[in-house]
Amino acid sequence: MRALTWYFDFVSPYSYLSFKRLGELPGDVAVELRPVLFAGLLQHHGQKGPAEIPPKRRWTYRWCAWWAKELGIEI
Hints:
The chain has 3 helices and 2 strands; from the N terminus they run βαβαα. It is α+β, with helices and mostly antiparallel strands. Strands 1-2 form a two-stranded parallel sheet. α1 links the parallel β1 (2-8) and β2. The N and C termini lie far apart (32 Å). The mean pLDDT is 95.
């Protein structure tokens, strides 16, 4: 059995879409879920998150909406 550690943030649309795709991994892959607080990591490094920067917020929304539609995932 192969092991994969997946770090994710509950509020991230990227994490949500990726989570919905974990079932596409080969059957011999065991996934260990590790939640993280992305905002805490950003704060620790003195960075703003994408939601705090209007152009990045718009891009994230548009990209994730498009990606979800392409994948057939409701978001």
